């Protein structure tokens, strides 16, 4: 195994969050009904400090089609960061460091691509680093996650090396999948509890719900987090997965990264509800809206959702509103996006906002310490880049084989504990199998 | 009875459905990670009553009624398997595997390889195949060939109660995703099944009847058709051998080739569509492996290339029957 253990310092554990928790009385998404019996108003909370509204219109301009944005909010000032109810100074700095590592690793990937070292495209989470890192930071050691392609920050938070991601992009033998799978499509079921991304959007929702089911059968309620875009959530399996989690009260934490563009299709052409969090009402679970460029809000919502999951109370839908600040992948210049939208969200850059919060507002980080932090991140990335570049390509012979596993490859064991069987001699009575006839034709 | 079979109790006769149920119950008693999920598997025990009694013994935690969402709960099984459970997914009618193809093909089948050999998905999908139940085109298809095409899946087609029990137990113990097709017309068929624990290894064909003149290579529902045809052929002096591969993958190529070499003629029978189907793959195996010993081109017989029609006179001509197989074999043997 090439992967390192999760660093202790950066390992998010339940205990930490529990210690700093100041309780969440009265403002949690837990109560399904208010005193007057109308639960609709209580089911969806909005933690945002600003609530912009955009309308993207398709305009036919002679032979060309382009998009224009209509909004009264485009010139609005950038709001403050919302104070976290749970995070202390060192946690905030740590999340900020993950965000820096996330962004700068993607810049390194872009450079590797320009140098011709990447096989295929590069996918970016630019503008979404706060959401990706802060949400994964809310997971405990026994929790699971299933990231999507833009959640490379979540992989870093969960203890993977930047070198792992770089080697995946370069299709190297040393990559976690030994060159068999692409980009951020890898995980670790043994220690980090990470299911690899699945290309078919929405598919991770039932899979992660299944993980929660498996854990529950083994006697443990856990949080299982996965992410989906405002585009991907249109799929049917998304509904099927959330619906099962809702019915069985399984600890799904679904973060909808509502980033306004599904490749080139604006969200106005993707769904008809105003806020995707409103769908929570239909699923019968709580919904939360957060500003995805405010890492503190994202963390608080995810932390509360994870705590709820671990208590066995069920799923939560979190809609994080932000914008995809690059194209779908490196090949896509995103010329279809109206410029004012980029300008609006550029002022809300999650890293810039966090930097400002830590240095100017809170004075938790001096300029000198900030520079030191950046230098450390750069140094770390350079070392990881070296490891990744120097890894060999896989041998052609290794393409064959390993499709099926045999008993020798490794044993399958329940992840948490043997499920309690319902054997004889406990409270159950022996029930002979009903010998009812199998009807060939239903009567 | 194959050599692999070791009954611990005196043989007795039970139905195909009872054999499936017994295999599940025995495996669930043996291993508490085995659980069942699907539509109407618990209280109803499936519309075919194959799972009757399992809820009472194992409870609703392990016999899980899901919302109507085939793709969803198949994905759920993939996730549960990743935590070390051994879920058995129930897809009532094989026609509905269309809804689960993404989960089976893009997830379950690929996980082991794409993770660089690190992950396993030990799940079983039980589903049905078979026409002539008068259920029309969306409840009568035999679509097992689709899964046979996908690296990473194992595909099982039991043809007797004995094989059903032994193969299903082997499937549940297998660490790979396995698809288990039951012919829904066969649920009431009775046969000898030992009461105790035994498994039939995957990848081992079974010679259901020995013969000298022609090999009838038959799967699932077509094994009984082949045996019926063999009886008819015997009356006109043709000795037919009936070989059941039992598992499509892994495939016991050796036994098929040896039988064809011995008899010098082969007809492949399968209830799936003939075009681009299972029969084509099996015929290719025989044509390649027994070419110099064959006296005739290998013949394939499968379902007619139409959506399975509803009305009995229409439906009955879409799949091979004892009569059509008898005639084809007679012609091939020059009688």
How many E-type strands of chain A?
10
Helix/strand-derived category of chain A reads: alpha/beta
Main sheet properties of chain B: 7 strands, mixed
Describe the largest sheet of chain A. 6 strands, parallel
Q: What top-tier CATH class of chain A fits best?
A: Alpha Beta
Radius of gyration of chain A over alpha carbons? 23 Å
Instruction: Report the average pLDDT across residues of chain B.
Output: 95
Largest interface, C-beta within 8 A: A-B, 72 and 72 residues
% residues in beta strands of chain A: 5-15%
The helix count of chain B comes to 12
Task: Report what the structure shows.
The complex is a heterodimer of chains A (443) and B (335). Chain A has 443 residues and is α/β, with parallel strands linked by helices. Chain A has a single domain (40-74, 89-394), classed as 3-Layer(aba) Sandwich (Rossmann fold). Helices cover 34% and strands 11% of the residues of chain A. Chain A is built from 13 helices and ten strands. Chain A has helices at residues 14-20, 40-43, 89-114, 129-137, 152-157, 162-169, 204-217, 236-248, 279-283, 295-310, 339-346, 350-361, 367-390; strands at 44-46, 55-61, 64-70, 144-146, 224-229, 252-258, 261-262, 265-266, 287-291, 316-321. In chain A, the strands form three sheets. Chain A has a six-stranded parallel sheet with strand order 1-9-10-6-5-4, sandwiched between helices. Chain A has a two-stranded antiparallel ribbon with strand order 2-3. In chain A, helix 10 (295-310) links the parallel strand 9 and strand 10. In chain A, helix 3 (89-114) packs antiparallel against helix 12 (350-361). The longest helix of chain A is centred in the first third of the chain and has 26 residues, at 89-114. The N and C termini of chain A lie far apart (57 Å). By secondary structure, chain B is an alpha/beta fold. Chain B folds into two domains: 13-192, 3-Layer(aba) Sandwich (Rossmann fold); 206-332, Rossmann fold (3-Layer(aba) Sandwich). Chain B is built from twelve helices and 14 strands. In chain B, the strands form three sheets. Chain B has a seven-stranded mixed sheet with strand order 3-2-4-5-7-6-12, with helices on both faces. Chain B has a five-stranded mixed sheet with strand order 9-11-10-13-14, sandwiched between helices. In chain B, helix 1 (16-30) runs parallel beside helix 7 (161-173). Chain B is globular, with a radius of gyration of 19 Å. In chain B, 60% of the residues are buried. The model of chain B is unreliable at 1-8 (pLDDT under 50). Chains A and B meet through helix 7 and helix 8 of A and helix 1, helix 2, helix 3, helix 4 and helix 5 of B.
């Amino acid at each position: 195994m090439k992967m390192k253990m999760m660093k202790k310092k950066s390992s998010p554990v339940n205990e930490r969050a529990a210690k700093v928790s100041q309780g969440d009385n009265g403002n949690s998404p837990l109560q399904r009904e208010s005193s007057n019996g109308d639960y609709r108003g209580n089911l969806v909370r909005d933690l945002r400090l600003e609530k912009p509204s955009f309308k993207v219109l398709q305009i036919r301009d002679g032979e060309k089609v382009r998009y224009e944005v209509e909004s009264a909010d485009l010139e609005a000032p950038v709001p403050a960061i919302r104070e976290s109810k749970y995070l202390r100074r060192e946690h905030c700095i740590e999340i900020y460091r993950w965000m820096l590592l996330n962004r700068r690793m993607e810049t390194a990937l872009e450079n590797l691509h320009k140098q011709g070292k990447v096989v295929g495209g590069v996918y970016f989470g630019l503008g979404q680093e706060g959401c990706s890192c802060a949400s994964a930071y809310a997971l405990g050691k026994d929790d699971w996650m299933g990231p999507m392609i833009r959640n490379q920050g979540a992989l870093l938070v969960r203890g993977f090396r930047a070198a792992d991601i770089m080697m995946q992009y370069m299709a190297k033998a040393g990559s976690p999948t030994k060159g068999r799978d692409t980009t951020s499509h890898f995980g670790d079921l043994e220690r980090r509890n990470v299911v690899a991304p699945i290309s078919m959007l929405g598919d991770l929702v039932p899979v992660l719900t299944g993980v929660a089911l498996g854990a529950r059968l083994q006697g443990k309620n856990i949080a299982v987090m996965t992410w989906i875009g405002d585009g991907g959530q249109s799929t049917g399996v998304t509904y099927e997965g959330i619906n099962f989690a809702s019915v069985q009260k399984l600890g799904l934490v679904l973060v909808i990264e509502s980033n306004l563009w599904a490749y080139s299709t604006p969200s106005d052409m993707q769904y008809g509800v105003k806020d995707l969090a409103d769908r929570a009402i239909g699923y019968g679970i709580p919904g939360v809206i957060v500003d995805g460029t405010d890492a503190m809000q994202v963390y608080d919502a995810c932390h509360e959702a994870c705590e709820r999951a671990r208590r066995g109370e069920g799923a939560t839908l979190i809609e994080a509103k932000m914008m995809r600040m690059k194209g779908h992948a490196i090949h896509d210049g995103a010329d279809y996006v109206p410029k004012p939208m980029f300008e609006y969200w550029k002022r809300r850059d999650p890293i810039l906002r966090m930097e400002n919060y830590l240095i100017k507002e809170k004075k938790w980080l001096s300029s000198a310490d900030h520079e030191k932090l950046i230098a450390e991140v750069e140094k770390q990335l350079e070392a990881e880049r070296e490891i990744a570049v120097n890894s060999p390509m896989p041998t052609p012979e290794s393409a064959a084989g390993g499709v099926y596993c045999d008993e020798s490859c490794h044993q399958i064991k329940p992840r948490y504990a043997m499920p309690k069987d319902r054997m004889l001699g406990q409270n159950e009575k022996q029930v002979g199998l009903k010998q009812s006839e199998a009807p060939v034709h239903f009567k | 009875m194959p050599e692999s079979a070791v009954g611990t109790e005196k043989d007795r006769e039970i139905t195909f459905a009872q054999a499936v149920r017994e295999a599940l119950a025995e495996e669930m008693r043996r291993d508490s990670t085995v659980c069942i999920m699907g539509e109407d598997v618990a209280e109803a025990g499936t519309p075919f009553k194959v799972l009757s009694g399992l809820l009472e013994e194992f409870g609703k935690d392990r016999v899980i009624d899901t919302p109507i969402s085939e793709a969803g709960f198949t994905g759920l099984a993939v996730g549960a398997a990743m935590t070390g459970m051994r879920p058995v997914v129930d897809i009532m009618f094989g026609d509905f595997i269309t809804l689960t193809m993404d989960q089976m093909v893009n997830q379950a089948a690929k996980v082991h390889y794409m993770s660089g050999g690190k992950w396993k998905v030990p799940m079983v999908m039980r589903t049905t195949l078979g026409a002539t139940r008068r259920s029309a085109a969306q409840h009568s298809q035999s679509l097992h060939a689709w899964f046979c095409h996908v690296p990473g899946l194992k595909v099982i087609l039991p043809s007797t109660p004995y094989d059903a029990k032994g193969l299903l137990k082997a499937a549940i113990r297998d660490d790979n995703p396995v698809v288990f097709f039951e012919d829904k017309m066969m649920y009431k068929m009775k046969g000898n099944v030992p009461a105790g624990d035994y498994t039939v290894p995957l990848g081992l064909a079974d010679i259901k009847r020995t013969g000298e003149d022609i090999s009838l290579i038959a799967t699932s529902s077509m094994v009984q058709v082949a045996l019926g045809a063999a009886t008819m052929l015997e009356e006109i002096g043709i000795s037919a051998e009936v070989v059941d591969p039992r598992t499509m993958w892994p495939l016991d190529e050796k036994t098929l080739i040896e039988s064809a070499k011995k008899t010098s003629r082969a007809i492949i029978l399968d209830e799936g569509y003939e075009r681009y189907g299972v029969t084509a793959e099996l015929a290719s195996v025989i044509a390649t492996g027994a070419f110099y010993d064959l006296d005739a081109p290998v013949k394939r017989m499968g379902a007619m290339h139409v959506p399975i029609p509803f009305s009995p006179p229409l439906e009955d001509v879409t799949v091979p029957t004892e009569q059509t197989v008898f005639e084809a074999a007679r012609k091939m043997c020059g009688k």
